TrEMBL record, chains A, B:
Coiled-coil ranges (or none): none
Keywords: Amino-acid biosynthesis, ATP-binding, Kinase, Lysine biosynthesis, Nucleotide-binding, Transferase
Name by which UniProt lists this protein: Aspartokinase
Residues binding substrate: 47, 74
Gene3D superfamilies: Acetylglutamate kinase-like, VC0802-like
Pathway in which this enzyme or protein is active: Amino-acid biosynthesis; L-threonine biosynthesis; L-threonine from L-aspartate: step 1/5; Amino-acid biosynthesis; L-lysine biosynthesis via DAP pathway; (S)-tetrahydrodipicolinate from L-aspartate: step 1/4; Amino-acid biosynthesis; L-methionine biosynthesis via de novo pathway; L-homoserine from L-aspartate: step 1/3
Highest taxon of source: Bacteria
GO BP annotations, alphabetical order: homoserine biosynthetic process; lysine biosynthetic process via diaminopimelate; threonine biosynthetic process
NCBIfam families: asp_kin_monofn, asp_kinases, PRK06635.1-2, PRK06635.1-4
Enzyme Commission code: 2.7.2.4
Length: 411, 411
């Protein structure tokens, strides 16, 4: 007997028949003798509709009211799933964020969970009652409904699992696990049976959409074992059919590289002929930060004559136009010659905790790309990943090449 | 300067443009210097959809979960209207039932309001802030979301008006007031400028759908002046464009009859040849009460031979089949000869507090119907109304005749 938190996303509860299906899955765990809490998202499409309502009323809306509006989607599914569970003979009740309560700060629309009072849920779970918790939402210290930002239900689930001391948090979604890379592009992509928190964090922040970044951070911090698995496929006979996100210690044979992520959501900006003097970076990136534009990769070229330099960096594609505007406004102060913007780029990253102890991982990447005539525009590295920016047209070629080079292809 | 509670129904907040329209109406009252609280229903169609979700999951569902699901509709509109008001430069915030709180009993799906804590709303209204309250919902002593039953937003509004000591509760709807009778049937129907609580209560319970019965009871109990008016029509220059529901004292010239209501939602049952002995009524209506079937009009004919009698009564059309079943099951005990069921009937009622002091009102009704060859099947009376059951095909003829006879036709 274990204590489990199960989380079901929007497509998993997308209509009444699917909610029934979720109830059957929950029942399996209850019948197996487990103590179960369930976290649900809104029915797919509902949150978008509610967000659209808010936006169409006012371009600048009160985030507290936005939260009251959008949190209603999870309220509906929590009630419906409780009814579906009761219909299968299972004792269950719904819990809204304010009922538990899931206390958050008051940064509305992207609140952070501060504390979950599990006293009552814990007591009831011990009696066999299933707690059906509305994901994505909490309550602020001022007694207002708060939400955790898009994808926040993953975070709700992991936080609840941590607070309840659950043995595992199962994130049910529409894919059956975490893959070595995108299987729609690389047919030989393999499902990983295990991946470390650190790797999953890089995968999530580098474009793999399977888990929300903050939920992985929280899982890592509280050492919550997370499984990603499919709501729609059964894997009979398998105890852990999905991908388990766990501590490094739990992975016996660690591959050098676990996965290859890519993000098309990048754009490159180059400032040509910037005066090369102390403080130039601060003068460039200060105005961007003020405009809430996140800068990711940064490269500063060595200047030939020692008086000017080229500064290249990447921003989110959606921010490109604003970034260029901000820099054009600051042209006099920055005294660069011209701006070159390019949105036809892709960031490709190889990720693996094995890199820590093995040299040559980056070199192998550079060579594989060079062999295929792919020019690397920007490089950035961290302890467990190497990212390169290349022309977008090479996405598929680069992914397939790297997948083979690092020995990730399916047998 | 007055303190007002404004209530807007589902069609009034049916889409984003209409919510903006509501915001403009609220702004007019704020600009006029009034302290304003607004009560909103769910967008039209939303509650039905949510009810349908619950029903399609389980025929017998937990009313506490049903309440969590259906209360979400009002949550959405309260947040959206707060945003729309802020967009017009008005300080406003949404309030859910549990935030105020509006405390109810725990008879879920048809809860009764026990207490409204207005401390905080009252304080804020005095500073000019508009309270946008989600109608239809409250919170039980067990901290579960409760709802007040269909049309409950009217009750929320009146209860809030009473608790806030508001000067008036304006119920905005899709008709511009209370009419002497249904203007779709009687072209000469007149809008009433004033009507008493007692009359409104009879009108509401006899089929006029403009206000929920319980809200009128509550208005009467707490002497809340209620105005029914249209969201969609402007009545320039008029201070009170709708119909005011008030205490009898406020109506200077009271008509003998104020209105004529009708209900097609009736069915007639006759038990022929029931043994005429003491306790027969109890034996008939006991099983119906046990089956939660409401019986309305009752007539017991005098038996010719002194040993049997005919018992005629009406039930709601939706309950007719069940009523017949219940009575057939009890046939041995009741020892009647046969059951005659008839659903092609209509109940027509003339209503007026003036009846109390004037004789002959019923007689005039009976004569008017007889003159037109309309046979009266059942009669029931109260202090301020006379109801008759006639064949449904006479509905229009009877309404028009009575409207003229009682001098209600428009000049």
């Amino acid at each position: 007997m274990a204590r489990l938190v199960l989380k079901f996303g929007g497509t998993s509860v997308g209509d009444i028949e699917r909610i029934r299906n979720v109830a059957r899955k929950v029942k399996q765990e209850v019948d197996a003798g487990h103590e179960v809490a369930v976290v649900v998202s809104a029915m797919s499409g509902v949150t978008n509709q509610l967000v659209e309502y808010c936006r169409s009323i006012s371009r600048i809306y009160d985030a507290r009211e936005y939260d009251a509006v959008v949190a209603s989607g999870e309220q509906v599914t929590s009630g419906l799933l409780a009814i579906a569970l009761q219909d299968l003979g299972i004792t269950a009740r719904s819990w809204q964020g304010w009922q538990i309560p899931i206390l958050t700060d008051d940064v509305h629309a992207k609140a952070r969970i501060e504390r979950i009072d599990t006293t009552e849920i814990d007591r009831r779970m011990k009696t066999g009652e299933v707690a059906v918790v509305a994901g994505f939402q909490g309550v602020s210290h001022r007694n207002r409904i708060s939400t955790l930002g898009r994808g926040g239900s993953d975070t709700s689930a992991v936080a609840l699992a941590a607070a309840l001391g659950a043995e595992r948090c199962d994130i049910y979604t529409d894919v059956d696990g975490v893959y070595t890379t995108d299987p729609r592009i690389v047919a030989k992509a393999r499902k990983l049976s295990r991946i470390t928190y650190e790797e999953m964090l890089e995968m999530a922040s580098l474009g793999a959409k399977v888990l929300q970044t903050r939920s992985v951070e929280m899982a890592m911090k509280h050492r919550v074992r997370v499984q990603v698995l499919s709501t729609f496929e059964e894997a009979p006979g398998s105890d852990l059919p999905g991908t388990l996100v766990v501590d490094e210690d739990e992975i016996v044979e660690q591959e050098l590289v676990s996965g290859i992520a890519y993000s098309r959501d990048e754009a490159k900006v180059t400032l040509v002929g910037v005066a090369d003097r102390p403080g130039v970076a601060a003068r460039i990136f200060g105005p961007l930060a003020d405009a809430a534009i996140n800068v990711d990769m940064i490269v500063q070229n060595v200047s030939e004559d020692g008086t000017t330099t080229d500064m290249t960096f990447t921003v989110g594609k959606a921010d490109l136009d604003r970034a260029v505007q901000v820099l054009e406004k600051a042209k006099d102060e920055l005294s660069y010659r011209r701006i070159v913007a390019d949105s036809d780029v892709v960031k490709i990253s190889v990720i693996g905790v094995g890199m820590r102890s093995h040299a040559g991982v980056a070199q192998r990447m550079f060579k594989a790309l060079a062999d295929r005539g792919i020019n690397i525009q920007v490089i950035s590295t961290s302890e467990i990943k190497v990212s390169v920016l290349v022309a977008e047209e090479y996405t598929e070629l680069a992914l397939r090449a790297l997948h083979t080079v690092y020995g990730l292809d399916q047998a």
